[in-house]
Write a structure and sequence with these properties.
The chain is an all-alpha fold and 289 residues long. It is built from 15 helices and two strands. The protein has one domain: Orthogonal Bundle (Farnesyl Diphosphate Synthase). The radius of gyration is 18 Å and the shape is globular.
Length: 289
């Protein structure tokens, strides 16, 4: 089974638990709406790839960990789009959750997805407690404070925002959870995989800054130009366009160089290079030049 099928099946299993009798129908529908259809799913794909490089494939624990990382990502998107933050009406080429349902439901959906991420891994690790506490800690650090998604979002409420901390928390933390989670769910030492997540997380945020400035809404599937409109700190403000692109390319190479010796290193390098081309394709770089 390919990685996309594994991820979608694992997400379906997790979301089905919210379709149970007794769940408010609108909440259940909005949770499903927030998770499906698929986005790029780069974070769970990374989790599966790290586990495969560690010698573990076709594992329900790895699949559930990958799904939980994606559930946290989906939660962050729902909250990010809310009127009190980005006030974005579009996500993944369709109305964002607060537009398709309402603001109250969207807030609850984000909360529910965070909780569901932990319930999901608890279910599959119940009979295999090895590494489970470390995995929960990794997911918790990625989700909360002082250095996770919540902290990253909270920097937008401050009068001054340190760009490096903002990037590390709002974007980088979940990439670290993806690589570390892949190793932990495979039962191997996670320390060698942390640098990969850190480099990819920063690279992704730099690319997102460039894309927001130069891509069209129709390409992004979400409103373009929000960073400038909302006065957000970006790599473009810090480094300029050429500097931001150069920084992205340097981080991608740094990520590739950080891959520990393993049987799947070549596949993982190819995955990272393909993702870098998807994030900043040639036509977008030409537009930004």
């Amino acid at each position: 089974m390919d990685s996309t099928s594994v991820i979608e099946q694992a997400l379906e299993t997790a979301v089905q638990s919210c379709d149970a009798l007794g769940c408010p129908p609108k909440l259940a529908a909005a949770i499903r709406y927030a998770v499906f259809p698929a986005g790029a799913r780069i974070r769970p794909r990374l989790t599966l790839a790290v586990a495969a490089c560690s010698g573990v494939v076709d594992s329900p624990r790895v699949a559930a960990t990958a799904a939980s990382v994606e559930l946290l990502h989906c939660a962050s998107l729902v909250h990010d789009d809310l009127p009190c933050f980005d006030n974005a009406d579009l996500r993944r080429h369709r109305p964002s959750v607060h537009k398709a349902f309402d603001e109250r439901i969207a807030l609850l959906v984000g909360d529910a997805l965070i909780v569901l991420a932990f319930q999901n891994v608890a279910r599959v690790f119940a009979d295999h407690p090895h590494n489970f506490p470390a995995l929960v800690l990794a997911l918790g650090r990625a989700a909360g404070a002082p250095s996770g998604l919540v902290a990253g979002q909270a920097w937008e409420c401050e009068s001054g925002t340190p760009l490096e901390e903002y990037r590390r928390q709002k974007t980088g933390a979940l990439f670290v959870a993806a690589t570390v989670g892949g190793a932990l769910s495979a039962g191997v030492d996670a320390v060698p995989w942390r640098a990969l997540g850190e480099s990819l997380g920063e690279a992704y945020q730099v690319a997102d800054d460039v894309r927001d400035a130069f891509a069209e809404t129709s390409e992004l599937g979400k409103p373009a130009g929000r960073d400038e409109l909302l006065g957000r700190p970006t790599a473009l403000v810090e480094l300029g366009v050429a500097g931001a692109v150069q920084r992205f390319q340097s981080l991608i190479q740094q990520a590739i160089d950080s891959i520990p010796p393993c049987r799947g290193a070549e596949f993982l390098r190819d995955l990272i290079e393909l993702e870098s081309q998807r994030l900043l394709p040639a036509h977008l770089l030409h537009r930004a030049a």
